[in-house]
Amino acid sequence: MPQPAEPRAPQPRDGGSPFEKEYLPASTEGARYRWFRRIFHHDAPDERNFDLVLIAVILASVVVVLLDSVPSIKARWHGWLYAAEWAFTLAFTFEYAVRLWVVKRPLRYAKSFFGIIDLLAILPTFLSLLFPASASFAVIRALRLLRVFRVLKLVEYSSEAGVLIQALLRSRRKIFVFIATLVTIVVIFGALMYVVEGPDRGFTSIPAGMYWAIVTVGTVGYGDIAPGTPFGRFVTSVLIVIGYSIIAVPTGIYTAELARSLQPRRRQVRCTECGLPEHEADAWHCRKCGRALPHEE
């Protein structure tokens, strides 16, 4: 007789958003499990207190980085701010190590959205030992505040963010074609202005002309490079009109995908009375004639 299948261990569930991943504990007892509950759950008072303290520390660390960039404050308090920044970084490094220690699959967490953000939150300070200017990038740890969605039980908002991300991913090929077309236009007009205007007008090279074309097609118009000949001004006018014409293209592509995502899910089942081929996923009767739909096998 065939042997009964062994029950499978519960698997972590991933929602439609990067904020909703769930992880299995590496242990179900002892300090390791207690820390897992404290870090990845938000129900008990100590779990919520841990999250709120973490959010407060993240805010404080970002404020320290901001203050250290102000010359007058840096001249007087740089030593204290530098020490505080290292204290925050060491605390975040310890927390990141604990997160990897308490989950069953550390690599899965490390490759997740929050795992990458947690790593990026501590790297700039360590890199500042080699590249001092990189310390300012520590403000990226402000992204860790996205955990407030789960702490305050606002997961439904993170689900909506997942809808936006999925719509963007589905429209990526169309947007890529649009960007490739835009780059081609920029290269052609940049080379044209390099030939027409020349170095005397600031178009010292084709890349310089491409920079001007990007600024012009984006309707920004810095004015640091400007055409002086009548033909050059005509080309500029044409490029500005092109910019206004295509500026709505990526928005339209994304909006169409987003509208498609918000439509109710449908299933392919043909009504035996009127022949309507599509119905809502939970429909029992035809939405056109009201006849009972055939059951799917």
Question: How is this structure best described in words?
Answer:
By secondary structure, the chain is an all-alpha fold. Helices cover 59% and strands 2% of the residues. Strands 1-2 form a two-stranded antiparallel sheet. Helix 2 runs antiparallel to helix 3 and helix 8 packs across helix 9 (206-217). The chain has helices at residues 30-40, 45-68, 71-102, 106-110, 113-127, 148-151, 155-170, 172-196, 206-217, 230-246, 249-262, and strands at 266-268, 278-280. The protein contains eleven helices and two strands. The protein is flat and about 80 Å long.
Explain briefly what this protein structure is:
The chain is built from 11 helices and 2 strands, in the order αααααααααααββ.
What's the topology here?
Elements: H1 30-40, H2 45-68, H3 71-102, H4 106-110, H5 113-127, H6 148-151, H7 155-170, H8 172-196, H9 206-217, H10 230-246, H11 249-262, E1 266-268, E2 278-280
Helix pairs in contact: 1-2, 1-3, 2-3, 3-5, 7-11, 8-9
